[in-house]
Amino acid sequence: MTKIKIAVTGIGNCASSLIQGIEYYKSDNKEPVGLMHWDLGGYKPTDIKVVAAFDVDARKVGKDVAEAIFAPPNCTTIFCPDVPATGVKVKMGRVLDGVSDHMKNYDEKYTFVVSREPEAAKADVVNELKNSGADMLLNYLPVGSEEAVRFYAECALEAGVAFINNMPVFIASDPEWAKRFEERNIPVIGDDIKAQLGATITHRILASLFEKRGVKLDRTYQLNTGGNTDFLNMLNRSRLASKRESKTEAVQSILSQKLDDDNIHIGPSDYVAWQKDNKVCFLRMEGRLFGDVPMNLELRLSVEDSPNSAGVVIDAIRCCKLALDRGIGGVLYSPASYFMKHPAIQYPDDEASRRTEEFIAGIRER
C-alpha cells in the first residue's frame, strides 16, 4: 500500500499524540493495544506520514514536526519520546480568530506565543498542500476558530485535498460546505472528533441504555475540567457556542424525546492548570424507574485527553484514504457518524459502527 500523506494545521497536544502514535506502533513487537483497527482496508497506522504542517506559535514555526510536537504549551503525555526527524518544517499559518485575546494574559508556558513571521496567504497554504503531495488536511485549531477553520477548508478545496475537521466548527455538517466538497468530489469527514472512550461517547451509551431499559431520563449534566490549552481557550465563553451545540446534540440525538434545554447541560466547566492534558468528566443522570420511582447515576471519568482523540483520528485518516482510493467525494456519512460528535447524520453508535465497517469493506459507499 502507498503511504497516506497528511498535512496538519495546529501542532498542539492532539497532533502530538497522533504523530507520537504513528511512530509508537512501528515496532514489530508492539502489541496493538489502543486501536479500533490495526489493519483498516489494508492500511496500518505506520502507513501514515506527515508531509506538511502549519501553526502560529513562535516555538513551533520553523521547527521540524518531530521537535515541534513537544514544544510548549503542549503538555500531553509523552509516550513515544524518540520520534525521528521528519524533514518537514512547521510553516507559519494564518491567525485570524485562532488565538483568543484573553490568552495573552497567561504565563507563556500555558498559552500561545504568536510568531512574528509573516502570516500565510491562502496561496501559500494551497501551494504547500499541493507541493507536499498531501492527500488530506487535518484541522486541529482551537475551539471557536470559526474564521480560521473556514480559511483552511477553503485551502483544502482549492488544493484538491480531503479535509478532516476534528474541531466544532461546522463544515461537513453544513449543507453548503458539504455541497462544495461533493461538487469537487473531495472527501470530507467532520465535525468535532469523539474521543476513543471519553465523556461524550460514555454519555451517549448511558443515554441509550436508559432508553433500552425503559428508564425515563429527566435531566442530566456533563461537566469537564482540564489543564491544556483547549480548556484555557474555552474560558472565553463567547467561543463555545458551536462546542456546546456539538456536545449537546451528540447526546440529545440518542433520546426518543429530547430534553428541554433547562434539563440538559453539557460543556466545559473550568480550567485547572495542574491537570495539564488530563480531562476529568463529572456526569450525573436523573431518571425514573418502574412505578415512577426515582434513581440517579453519577460517574467520574479521568482520561488523557489528546491520546484519547488520536485513537479515533487514526481511523478517520484511513477511512478518508479509502474514499480517495475509490474516487468517492463529499461527506463520508458513515465514518463521520461513528467518529464525530456533530456529523451530518446522527446514527446510534451500534448502527454507526456497523455502517463504518461496511464502508471499510466496500459494501457501503459513504
Give the CA-based shape: globular
Structural class: alpha/beta
* Multimerization status: single chain
Helix-strand pattern: EHEHEHEHEHEHEHHEEEHEHH
Number of strands: 11
Query: Can you tell me the residue ranges where pLDDT is under 50 for at least 5 consecutive residues?
Result: none
- Binned strand content: 15-25%
Report Rg. Answer: 20 Å
Strand order of the largest sheet: 3-2-1-4-5-6-11
Tell me the distance between the termini: 21 Å
**Mean pLDDT over the residues:** 96
Helix segment tally: 11
Helical content (DSSP H or I, runs of 4+)? 25-40%
The largest sheet is: 7 strands, parallel
List the helices and strands and how they pair.
Elements: E1 4-9, H1 13-24, E2 48-55, H2 65-68, E3 90-92, H3 122-132, E4 136-139, H4 146-159, E5 162-165, H5 175-183, E6 187-189, H6 199-212, E7 216-226, H7 229-233, H8 241-252, E8 264-271, E9 278-288, E10 294-304, H9 305-326, E11 330-331, H10 333-339, H11 349-361
Parallel strand pairs: 1-2, 1-4, 2-3, 4-5, 5-6, 6-11, 7-8
Antiparallel strand pairs: 7-9, 9-10
Descriptive account of the structure:
With 366 residues, the chain is of the alpha/beta class. The two termini are 21 Å apart. The chain has helices spanning 13-24, 65-68, 122-132, 146-159, 175-183, 199-212, 229-233, 241-252, 305-326, 333-339, 349-361, and strands at residues 4-9, 48-55, 90-92, 136-139, 162-165, 187-189, 216-226, 264-271, 278-288, 294-304, 330-331. α1 packs across α9 (305-326), α3 crosses α4 (146-159) and α10 (333-339) packs across α11 (349-361). It is built from eleven helices and eleven strands.
